[in-house]
Amino acid sequence: MPTIAYLGPPGSFSEAAALKVPLPDKTLVDYPTIPDVLEAADLGHTTFAIIPIENAIEGSVNLAMDWLIHEVRLMIFAEIVLPIAHGLYVAPPQRETPFPQIEKIFSHGQAIAQSFRFLRRTFPHAQVEPTLSTSEALRLVAENPDRPWAALGHRRGAERYGLVERIRDVQDSPNNATRFLLVGHTPPAGLPPSERKKTTLLVTLGRDFPGALSQVLHCFSWRAINLSRIESRPTKRRLGSYVFYIDIDRGVDDVLIPAAMEELRALGHEVRFLGSYPVYEVDDD
Amino acid sequence: MPTIAYLGPPGSFSEAAALKVPLPDKTLVDYPTIPDVLEAADLGHTTFAIIPIENAIEGSVNLAMDWLIHEVRLMIFAEIVLPIAHGLYVAPPQRETPFPQIEKIFSHGQAIAQSFRFLRRTFPHAQVEPTLSTSEALRLVAENPDRPWAALGHRRGAERYGLVERIRDVQDSPNNATRFLLVGHTPPAGLPPSERKKTTLLVTLGRDFPGALSQVLHCFSWRAINLSRIESRPTKRRLGSYVFYIDIDRGVDDVLIPAAMEELRALGHEVRFLGSYPVYEVDDD
Fold it and tell me: Domain Prephenate dehydratase, which positions (chains A, B) (predicted)?
């Protein structure tokens, strides 16, 4: 049975995404940091790892991307797009505590930032305290049921701690979703077909000259290969030297994408193929 | 006297960068989160704010960029490039404790990740515990001088807490630097001249078609305007819709950059000018 490493503790959004990987049998294993998660799969302690790659709540997504690019040699096998909704949760004795009497609200700094306007409007006088994860915020509130405290977090996590939902969907932006990547060394068997596919490449410019990036992009655009995302990340060689993380909005083909890759290499750029994979947009239920 | 908002607590890398802003008189004010820092300057509670924008240690740089783009209307007045070095610090009674007897090492998750290999090699058996900031890790160690604990953090912060340096420069990558931006509503008087200048633009594609980004970049490249960095950030309208954060490696001129901006607007793209500003590479002493 395949195992999937994820960023714990249990009750995190990463666990919610891992549960949604469309493989019938799987065992989840939690790790404390994103480097640990990726290394687990790289060293073969788990079959796969799942990491947040864009707009995640816990941990740094920059960190996930840097480790994927520089520290491990894993391929991407699937993308999971998970809607992210924070709720406001209290311990059962506080189920009727009026909002002005809530003294403290705990959550991860990213969840607090994503709900900044809500908190200021609804709890102008509460003390907002950051925790290391949304799960830890929920745990703190659950362990102090007699205090007028609340936590922002994920519904499934709150249920696990026996908390009561006071408000659903407190985040300021209505379209809050996080992209997760399933990565590993050996492709999983039995992934179902998907409507959307993506291909991801890493391109490092051979030398920096005006128009180098434009040259790279033109190589795709005249072939009508649409890039759905481009992100520059430091190469770690020096500040201001970049590797380009490029998402193409379709699966790899036999002719056009390989030709673009080959020509970029002939022009002196480094090109690394990270995978061609299905995209699953899932519900968070 | 101008005031500068920064991400606290005191002893953070953001404070080190704020101290390096080349203005003779300034008062620093610490705030608990990056949204708070930016809002302080946007609402006029402080004259300026300083935020980490790339490869920072504390907090999420994605968060800094998203707030700069979407939530405030501030201009960039300067960039400060600060070398980031983590040291390993202990309380005075532990100044000779052999490394194998160090039981716990505390630090912010980003500093831990940047020193992951060092920690595994030098302290394979120590328990590594994340804290909300490097300053908090230093404080924890200072408040428990009789325990065999250590913290990764910034030298000036460690001095403030009376800690002893056991190892300098523990980060895995030798070229670790963080870019900070000084932002505000009104340009500061008396910034010294600098060798390097930069110009920053935000471009939002009018509509998404294959080659749209290539069109935008070509508009700069044929004019020999070199882009030193391009980063795509979600527009927050929907996942997969992006605004491009573009750094040009020189100051704005009277002809070429304005013409490029005007033509991009005529082609239906949104262009926002974030500033043309000096870059200061400073020492962390």
Answer: 3-185
What distance in Å separates residue A237's CA from the closest CA in chain B? 7
| Nearest residue of B to residue A175, measured between CA atoms | B238
CB B199 within 8 A of CB B248: yes
Angle at B77 between CA A229 and CA B226, to 5 degrees: 45
Cβ within 8 Å, pair B236-A175: yes
- Contact list in B for residue A179 (CB cut-off 8 A) is 239
A196-281 CATH choice from 3.30.70.260, 3.40.50.80, 2.60.40.10, 3.40.50.2000 = 3.30.70.260
Contacts of residue A113 in chain B, CB cutoff 8 Å?
Answer: 33-35, 60, 63, 67
Q: Is B189 exposed, middle or buried (0-12, 13-18, 19+ CB in 10 A)?
A: exposed
Share of chain A above pLDDT 90, in %: 54
Reported as a single tens digit per residue, the pLDDT across B73-104 is 999 999 999 988 889 999 999 999 999 999 99
* Per-residue confidence (pLDDT) for residue B64, from 0 to 100: 85
Out of A252-266, B24-38, B67-81, B215-229, least confident range: B215-229
pLDDT (mean) for A185-190: 93
Q: Please give, rounded to a whole number of angstroms, the shortest distance from the CA of A34 to a CA of chain B.
A: 8
- CATH number of B87-167, picked from 3.90.180.10, 3.40.50.11440, 3.30.160.20, 3.40.190.10: 3.40.190.10
pLDDT at site B192? 94
pLDDT of residue B71: 87
Helix B212-221 vs helix A212-221: crossing angle, to nearest 10: 150
Q: Do B226 and A209 touch (CB under 8 A)?
A: yes
Edge-to-edge strand ranges of the sheet holding B87-90 = B127-131, B104-108, B149-153, B87-90, B164-167
Alpha carbons B96 and A279: distance in angstroms, whole number: 54
* pLDDT tens-digit map of A110-132: 788 788 889 989 999 999 988 88
CA-based nearest residue in chain A for residue B61: A62
Residue A236's nearest CA partner among B122, B232, B117 is B117
Minimal Cβ distance to B113: which of A33, A173, A208:
A33
Q: What is the DSSP annotation of B180-218?
A: EEEEESSPPS-PPP-SEEEEEEEEE-SS--TTHHHHHHH
Please give the average per-residue pLDDT across B253-270, as a whole number: 92
Mutation to test the A interface, candidates B55, B106, B207, B214, most A Cβ within 10 Å? B214
Report the complex ipTM.
0.71
Going from N- to C-terminal start, the domains of chain A cover 87-167, 196-281
Instruction: Return the exposure string of B168-180: e unless at least 16 CB atoms fall within 10 Å of the residue's CB, then b.
Output: eebbbbeebbbbb
CA distances for B204 relative to A90, B69, B194, angstroms: 41, 11, 30
Q: Which of A109, A209, A227 is the closest to B59 by Cβ? A: A109
Residue of A nearest to B84 (CA): A239
